[in-house]
């Protein structure tokens, strides 16, 4: 196991990670970040309103915050098209696409978990 390591982030903050898994969680943790990445990976470029419609449970404030964090970490890009009204599009960066195997595995695991819980519920009836 690696020793504790300090890392200066692009925003100027310094954090200490005890292992690479902790660093990964720093970037993708949060109720909505991986869901956002799932949709961007699946659909490519999306506008804010499209993301909001895809995830009706997320608040506008939370979606904005999660998108800003993902952009700051270089996981997604934000493109503003100069028009009225402004058109803003989000997409995964090439660096963000390196998370594809993680997202795929989480999707597979989630399907197994859902099936397991449904089976347990069916047995308890």
UniProtKB/TrEMBL annotation:
Pfam entry (one): HxlR
Highest taxon listed in the record's lineage: Bacteria
Record keywords: DNA-binding, Transcription, Transcription regulation
Key word DNA-binding present: yes
Spans through the membrane: none
Domain HTH hxlR-type: 19-118
InterPro entries in alphabetical order: HTH_HxlR, WH-like_DNA-bd_sf, WH_DNA-bd_sf
Coiled coil: none
SUPFAM superfamilies with a match to the protein in the record: Winged helix' DNA-binding domain
Name this protein carries in UniProt: Helix-turn-helix transcriptional regulator
Gene source species: Pendulispora rubella
